[in-house]
Amino acid sequence: MKILIADDEEAPREQLQQAVRRVAPDAQILALCENGLDAWDDCLLHEPTLCLLDIRMPGLSGLEVARRAAALAQPPQVVFVTAFGDHAISAFEAGAIDYLMKPIDDTRLAQSLNRARQRLAPAATD
């Protein structure tokens, strides 16, 4: 699994990166992005299979990045990782496969990454 992480705050971004490494050591983290514009650019550049996006970021919000990514020929799976519970409906409308609340729980993150793997598995056999 190739992962892009986007969060405008350094500490949560680093915590999420460390959590991914703990629960999915086989995952490849392609990019750590500080804002939505960088997340979008890196999504186009690196073609991740999974994007872990914060909701509120400067430039483009995570929701805007997810909507743009959904239009790609091979869109990545999207999981929102946020401190705000009031955007869940919008997140799922934007195509999210999961919605994680900060601080991240390793068990919950592992469930989310497994969900992404299951959704990606049929594409890998094509």
How would you portray this structure in words?
The protein is an alpha/beta fold and 126 residues long. It is 47% helix and 20% strand. The chain contains five helices and five strands. It has helices at residues 10-23, 36-46, 62-70, 88-93, 106-124; strands spanning 2-6, 28-33, 50-53, 77-82, 98-101. Strands 2-1-3-4-5 form a five-stranded parallel sheet, sandwiched between helices. Helix 1 (10-23) links the parallel strand 1 (2-6) and strand 2 (28-33). The chain is globular. The two termini are 16 Å apart. 37% of the residues are buried. The model has no long low-confidence stretch (mean pLDDT 93).
Mean pLDDT: 93
Radius of gyration, in Å, reads: 13 Å
Which strand order does the major sheet show? 2-1-3-4-5
Main beta-sheet annotation: 5 strands, parallel
Helix-strand sequence? EHEHEHEHEH
Low-confidence stretches: none
Task: Tell me, briefly, the overall form.
Answer: globular
Ends apart, CA distance between termini: 16 Å
> Strand share of the residues?
15-25%
Helix content: 40-55%
Per DSSP, the total helix count is: 5
* Helix/strand class: alpha/beta
Total number of β-strand segments?
A: 5
